[in-house]
Amino acid sequence: MLGALIIVFREVLEAGLIVGIVMAATRGVPHRGRWIVFGIIGGIVGATVVAVFAGAISEAFQGSGQELFNAAVLAVAVVMLMWHNAWMARHGREIAAEMRDIGAAVSEGARPLTALAIVVGLAVLREGSEVVLFLYGIFASGTSGMSLLVGGLLGVAAGAAFTLLTYGGLLAIPTRYIFSVTTWLIALLAAGLAAQSVQFLNNGGYFLVLGSTVWNTSWLLSDGSILGRLLHTLIGYTDRPTALQLVVYLGTLLAMYVLMRIARYQPQRQEVAV
Amino acid sequence: MRTLLTLTAVALALSFAPAGAMAANYTLTLKNHRFTPSEIKVPANKRVKLTVVNEDATPEEFDSDALRVEKVLAGKSKGTVRIGPLKAGRYPFVGEYHEDTAKGVVVAE
Question: Does residue A103 carry a pLDDT above 50?
Answer without folding.
Answer: no
